[in-house]
């Protein structure tokens, strides 16, 4: 009883504080927690369950209030709308939207095969599986990572290990490119830099940069430090990255050491920092580091706890120093609905593609938050 | 097969008005009688021609039940009862009965006085309509008549909102009205027991929504108020006297205390008068837990909230004022609005829906220039905020409710079936129940499987037991014979003899006789013997006897042979059997008509 009152107070405090620290804040509770949040349009996202048997995959439309810029005050709509839904037979650990289509591709985190889904149009609310894509080599754990880029012929980049990465055309199921490498590094993430150049970020810290126009072996860079830790990667890509040489890569390790490199020289480091990650019981798969699409030099980190941290990497130096986050979203931790004593942790986060400080985050207790944070340093200064 | 029919009145895809007809066990019930707020003509009223083309509805409806006081659920009630005509009982909870007429009168005034409508109900009609109301208490079974009973359950949502359980015989339906499953600060969450109704009726919009938390809505409210106050602005909050005002006051009071704010908060006198009334209604309606919260915070002794005097509106500096009426259509709230509208530092927060024709409705639609009396125009420079605090269930909530009530079938109204396939599949999969989605004006027919309780007489039971053999169990039912007697409303299974005795009837025996002609060049006795041999070889397992009195008996069937008068080789077989052996008897007659096989000795 005492605990409940205390947590009520903490929650109350956080909400009062949020009046100053957030512009918009929305808190939702899904029936089942999700480990994926993926944009399927400027206003819709897909989420999906990860229990071992049957799960739901949902396409949600964000609240109208979030987008009503001029007449925001006149719009009272704050809820998510479930626009499409479907059922999967297994867990969904990765979900990727294929740009320019109404397709998404999922992976269960166990095998290397992908399932292809049609999200449906206006005339139906059912998300249906339309096919599958076989992994180049079968695996029984770890599963495949997926990346996709807007292209005239829908295709996905996928693989569970660095030597198995391939680019497959969806309609024919035929591979259009296969990464030729003897390496077998477990893939942490895949990123397109341009239509032809992509990066394979491996969880052992290796980074492969490949070009689909050549049959050369990919350029390999080893991890920034010799410690045996797990690494997570993100590559900044977007309008400013038409020239691959202006792209940057961030690598975050489970020890907290974070390194920013130029894609031209992935082996080198532009800047470093030591983040306080407090690795307690985080699930390797759920840690995510991401570049902000429209906020220069900012990254978001989640998965180590019940919080999402935003860092401004422009102030980082060559030698790693302890840095504090520019902003920390603790909403999931303070409003946790978990009553089995297991601390809640953030399972996923995404940045809004245009609204520079808006993010969506999901946690293990089924909560999903949409938040637009205030840069206090800018506000105060 | 017994069935329950459900028809949501209305046409096409329009939502925004609730009026559902249910036919169950020969009874017809109307659930809610809402007004469609988007129309100005007759389309705002439900189309009662479905019930009857002309004339009053009294003969066609056994009762009307209203779930809560929102106009889209009760707005057309006086029209239905007084202008179309209905004199039967109208059921609603006590708070709904108290609040409905006030809202209806407000609504009537706006529609008739402000908009000059003519085809509308009058004040007297509202009064006459309310005279037909029979108030309900929570969890109390009410007998509408000998067969129809109803019971109200707590729905949360607003004061007095109820979910209703309707039962006729062993068939039942639960209608949810509007409800919420996450506990609200003051209204709590809906609750129902495992009543296992044949159908659970709810809104489809809930099932496709995932609601933002109440806390975030409150946060937005506090943020807006705080921002205005900080820049020296004045905040007007027009409220309905018996609605959300008290809840928002408590929210502000706590916030002011917490943040140590000094700006004054006022509560207009119109509200304080009604507040007593509201408080009494509220206290008797809510449960123990909620009651305690209110007793602790005496609603009328806020530290930071004072009674308003109209002269304060001209005071300089920031302030917050709660004033009636809620849609800015008249009175104090409108007066204050006129004074404050010209200053962009000020703000008006509309906490609920505004009816067409009111200033509230206009500004919520973005109108920035208003025409007032005497051709004067008012420039609306202040900030307008629309906030919705209504507690509604969502996708998760609806699944929780289904788990609670365990209905045999689900029925969702006001949705497009084509766009709800996923939802239908979800409900069907998770609960293995059918999900119906009738369009407006369409009837959904749900077949029920009511169990009919029957008393079995002790004698009959003892006799069956005495027959021996294994005891019957669900996997191996045993056939037994008896007679079902329906007396008054009870059903009894008794032995045939007892039934005859009770009914004062004599038992009759039915015997069939049949003549079969056979060509057989033998003596009568020999023919009989040949028949006996033939039957013995065909009917193995049956008791066949050749009796000394010149007959053959198969079970209880008697066969006699005699020769035709004209021709000794033409034999006439006389077969005789009782009703119980009819099958065997007709089998034998068909068999013997075929004649005797030649190989018989």
Automatic annotation (TrEMBL), chain A:
Alphabetized InterPro entries for the sequence: WD40/YVTN_repeat-like_dom_sf (IPR015943), WD40_repeat_dom_sf (IPR036322), WD40_rpt (IPR001680), Wdr73 (IPR042795)
Swiss-Prot/TrEMBL WD repeat ranges: 346-372
Regions that span the bilayer: none
Keywords attached to this entry: WD repeat
GO biological process per UniProt: cytoplasmic microtubule organization
PROSITE patterns assigned: WD_REPEATS_2 (PS50082)
SMART domains the record matches: WD40 (SM00320)
Protein name, UniProt field: WD repeat-containing protein 73
Domain of life: Eukaryota
CC annotations in GO: cytosol; spindle pole
Signal peptide (UniProt feature, chain positions): none
PANTHER family tied to this protein: WD REPEAT-CONTAINING PROTEIN 73
Keyword check for Lipoprotein: no
Automatic annotation (TrEMBL), chain B:
Superkingdom per UniProt: Eukaryota
Protein name: Uncharacterized protein
């Amino acid at each position: 009883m005492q605990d409940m009152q205390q947590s009520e107070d903490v929650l109350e405090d956080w909400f009062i504080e949020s009046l100053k620290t957030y512009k918009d804040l929305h808190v939702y509770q899904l029936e089942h927690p999700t480990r994926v949040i993926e944009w399927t349009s400027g206003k819709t996202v897909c989420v999906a369950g990860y229990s071992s048997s049957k799960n739901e995959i949902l396409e949600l439309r964000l609240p109208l209030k979030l987008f009503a810029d001029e007449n925001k005050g006149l719009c009272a709509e704050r809820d998510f709308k479930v626009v499409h839904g479907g059922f999967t037979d297994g867990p969904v650990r990765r979900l990727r939207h294929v740009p320019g289509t109404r397709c998404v591709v999922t992976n269960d985190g166990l095998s290397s095969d992908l399932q292809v889904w049609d999200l449906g149009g206006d005339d139906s609310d059912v998300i249906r599986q339309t096919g599958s894509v076989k992994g180049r080599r079968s695996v029984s754990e770890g599963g495949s990572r997926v990346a996709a880029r807007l292209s005239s012929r829908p295709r996905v980049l996928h693989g569970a290990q660095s030597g198995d990465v391939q680019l497959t055309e969806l309609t024919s199921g035929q591979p259009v490119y296969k990464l030729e490498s003897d390496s077998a590094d477990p893939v942490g993430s895949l990123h397109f830099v341009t239509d032809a150049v992509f990066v394979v970020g491996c969880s052992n810290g290796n980074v492969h940069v490949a070009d689909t126009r050549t049959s050369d072996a990919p350029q390999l860079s080893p991890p920034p430090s010799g410690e045996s830790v797990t690494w997570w990667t993100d590559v900044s890509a977007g309008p400013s990255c038409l020239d691959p040489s202006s792209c940057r890569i961030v690598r975050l390790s489970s020890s907290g050491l974070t390194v920013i490199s130029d894609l031209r020289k992935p082996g080198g480091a532009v800047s470093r920092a030591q983040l306080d990650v407090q690795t307690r019981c985080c699930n390797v798969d759920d840690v995510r580091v991401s570049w902000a699409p429209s906020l220069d030099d900012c990254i978001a980190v989640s998965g180590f706890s019940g919080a999402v941290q935003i860092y401004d990497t422009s102030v980082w130096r060559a030698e790693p120093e302890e840095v504090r986050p520019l902003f920390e979203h603790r909403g999931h931790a303070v409003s946790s609905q978990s009553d089995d004593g297991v601390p809640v942790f953030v399972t996923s986060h995404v940045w809004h593609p245009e609204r520079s400080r808006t993010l969506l985050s999901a946690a293990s207790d089924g909560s999903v938050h949409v938040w637009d944070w205030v840069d206090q340093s800018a506000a105060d200064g | 097969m017994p069935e329950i029919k459900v028809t949501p009145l209305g046409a096409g895809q329009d939502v925004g008005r609730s009026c559902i007809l249910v036919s169950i066990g020969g009874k017809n019930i109307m659930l809610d009688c809402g007004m469609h707020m988007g129309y100005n003509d007759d389309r705002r009223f439900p189309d009662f021609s479905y019930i009857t083309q002309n004339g009053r509805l009294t003969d066609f409806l056994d009762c009307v039940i209203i779930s809560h006081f929102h106009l889209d659920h009760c707005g057309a009630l006086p029209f239905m009862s007084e202008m179309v005509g209905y004199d039967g009982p109208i059921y609603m909870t006590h708070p709904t009965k108290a609040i409905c007429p006030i809202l209806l009168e407000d609504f009537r005034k706006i529609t008739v006085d402000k908009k000059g409508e003519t085809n509308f109900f009058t004040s007297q009609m509202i009064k006459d309509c309310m005279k037909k109301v029979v108030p309900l208490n929570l969890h109390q079974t009410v007998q509408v008549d000998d067969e129809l009973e109803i019971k109200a359950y707590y729905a949360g949502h607003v004061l007095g909102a109820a979910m209703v359980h309707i039962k006729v015989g062993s068939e039942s339906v639960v209608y949810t009205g509007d409800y919420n499953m996450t506990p609200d600060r003051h209204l709590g969450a809906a609750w129902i027991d495992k009543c296992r109704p044949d159908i659970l009726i709810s809104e489809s919009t809930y099932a496709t929504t995932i609601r933002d938390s109440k806390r975030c809505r409150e946060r937005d409210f506090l943020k807006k108020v705080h921002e205005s106050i900080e820049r020296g602005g004045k905040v007007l909050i027009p409220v309905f006297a018996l609605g959300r005002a008290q809840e928002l006051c408590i929210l502000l009071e706590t916030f002011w205390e917490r943040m140590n704010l000094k700006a004054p908060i006022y509560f207009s006198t119109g509200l304080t008068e009604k507040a007593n009334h509201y408080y009494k209604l509220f206290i008797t309606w809510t449960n123990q837990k909620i009651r305690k919260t209110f007793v602790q915070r005496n609603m009328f002794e806020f530290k930071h909230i004072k009674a308003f005097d109209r002269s304060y509106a001209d005071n300089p500096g920031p302030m917050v004022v709660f004033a009636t009426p809620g849609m800015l259509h008249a009175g104090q709230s409108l007066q204050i609005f006129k004074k404050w509208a010209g200053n962009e530092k000020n703000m008006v927060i509309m906490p609920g829906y505004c009816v067409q024709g009111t200033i509230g409705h206009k500004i919520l639609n973005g109108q920035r220039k208003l025409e007032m009396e005497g051709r004067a125009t008012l420039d609306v420079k202040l900030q307008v905020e629309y906030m919705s605090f209504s507690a509604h269930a969502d996708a998760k909530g609806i699944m929780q409710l289904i788990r609670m009530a365990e209905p045999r079938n689900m029925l969702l109204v006001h949705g497009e079936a084509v766009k709800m396939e996923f939802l239908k599949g979800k409900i069907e999969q998770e609960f293995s129940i059918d999900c119906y989605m009738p369009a407006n004006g369409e009837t959904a027919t749900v077949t029920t499987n009511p169990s009919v309780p029957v008393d079995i007489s002790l004698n009959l039971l003892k006799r069956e037991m005495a027959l021996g053999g294994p005891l019957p169990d669900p996997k191996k039912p045993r056939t037994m014979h008896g007679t079902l007697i329906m007396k008054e409303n009870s059903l009894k299974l008794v032995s045939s003899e007892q039934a005859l005795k009770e009914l004062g009837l004599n038992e009759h025996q039915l015997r069939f006789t049949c003549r079969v002609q056979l060509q057989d060049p033998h003596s009568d006795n020999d023919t009989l013997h040949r028949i006996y041999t033939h039957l013995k070889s065909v009917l193995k397992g049956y008791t066949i006897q050749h009796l000394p009195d010149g007959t053959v008996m198969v079970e209880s069937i008697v066969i006699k042979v005699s020769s035709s008068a004209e021709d000794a080789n033409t034999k006439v077989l006389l077969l005789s059997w009782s009703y119980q052996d009819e099958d065997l008897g007709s089998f034998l007659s068909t068999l013997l008509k075929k004649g005797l096989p030649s190989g018989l000795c």
